[in-house]
Design goal:
This protein is α/β, with parallel strands linked by helices. Helix content is 43%, strand content 16%. Strand 8, helix 8 and strand 9 form a beta-alpha-beta unit. It is globular and about 45 Å long. Pathway: Carbohydrate acid metabolism.
Length: 209
């Protein structure tokens, strides 16, 4: 089981890429501080892709599924041995309980204070504020003032230049896709450039240590 305290600070989001492109990114992540990847369920062949990536890189990279919306999808993802699931929306208590029973970390999406509070009450491990960049980093502090500090992930418009601002505001985690990598380099499986982009991101990131 992946304990929340051990959950990587940054999760790389890969949406709409084929297996070769996803593999190139994950291979480039090995040995870096980017230790978590989310493969979205609205990518073609997502489950087969997840299964292959887990088989090859699961010992080095935390592999999860994103854009998970239904219990049926959850069951497919768990069968593919994901360590976590994310959703752009709130998840039902049934889904949260099912994941907990199978030791899978849950990261449902939320926008309002009510949704955030309800998700934690229903058993979410981490709540994803989405779309975070539209709300701004001060939104994190505004939420924490009445509700207290919670394990929050920011997703949506997060990149090399603003991620540290959100983490300094109190977010525990960030999910980033196009904010790290050049899309064409992913499509072309250009591992040399992908590694350079990871190095640049790591140099800009405030790791809080």
């Amino acid at each position: 089981m992946t304990e929340i305290l051990d959950f990587p600070k940054v999760t790389v989001i890969l949406r709409g890429y084929n297996y070769e492109s996803v593999r190139a990114v994950v291979k480039s992540m090995v040995g870096t501080r980017l230790r978590s990847v989310e493969i979205t369920m609205n990518s073609e062949g997502a489950i087969d892709m997840i299964r292959k990536i887990v088989d090859e890189f699961g010992g080095q990279i935390l592999v999860g599924a994103g854009t998970v919306l239904t219990l049926e999808q959850v069951k497919q993802c768990i069968d593919a041995k994901v360590k976590f699931i994310l959703s752009p929306t709130m998840l039902s208590k049934e889904i949260l309980d099912y994941c907990k029973a199978h030791h899978v970390v849950t990261v449902p999406g939320a926008f309002s204070p009510t949704e955030i509070k309800q998700s934690f009450e229903d058993g979410a491990d981490i709540v994803k504020i989405f779309p975070a960049a539209r709300l701004g980093s001060k939104y994190i502090q505004d939420i924490f003032a009445p509700l207290g500090v919670m394990p929050i992930m920011v997703v949506g418009g997060i990149n090399c230049e603003n991620v540290s601002e959100f983490l300094q505001a109190g977010a525990s985690y960030a999910g980033i896709g196009s904010g790290i990598f050049n899309k064409q380099d992913i499509i072309e499986c250009n591992e040399e450039e992908l590694k350079k982009q990871i190095e640049y991101f790591e140099s800009k990131m405030n790791w809080g240590e």
